[in-house]
Write a structure and sequence with these properties.
The chain is mainly α. The protein has helices spanning 21-30, 47-55, 61-70, 77-85, 100-110; strands at 6-10, 35-38. α1 (21-30) packs parallel to α2 (47-55) and α3 (61-70) packs across α4.
Length: 113
């Protein structure tokens, strides 16, 4: 199993942080973090910008659908989901889900307590 790291307590300029939401996402990506948690004080002002910046750093199904449309594999954007990458379609890969108890056990197994 590949180890992934996250910083779940990141402040942006929306409260008392040093970076804009976009800069925080970029810095996290450059540091190799798999995820960050924006935890600004008394504000959710940076969430939209951070989500948009984060989406630009990963590839998900809408990105694949746009490429399929651009290359002529489908006639309409929604065709990609209806025929190929939608839930229960041939190229759909279900996201791995872990229960909270399993997540806690995984963390305990990864570090010494």
């Amino acid at each position: 199993m590949t180890k992934k790291f996250a910083d779940l307590h990141v402040h942006t300029q929306a409260s008392d942080g040093e970076y804009t939401p976009e800069e925080a996402v970029r810095k996290a990506h450059e540091a190799g973090l798999a995820a960050i948690g924006i935890s600004d004080h008394d504000s959710v002002g940076g969430i939209k910008e951070a989500l948009e910046a984060g989406e630009a750093k990963s590839i998900c199904r809408p990105h694949i659908a746009r490429v399929m449309l651009k290359r002529g594999h489908i006639e309409e954007f929604q065709d990609a989901f209806n025929q190929y990458i939608g839930n229960d379609c041939p190229a759909y890969v279900k996201r791995y889900e872990m229960s909270p108890p399993d997540a806690i056990q995984t963390i305990r197994n990864a570090v010494e307590f």
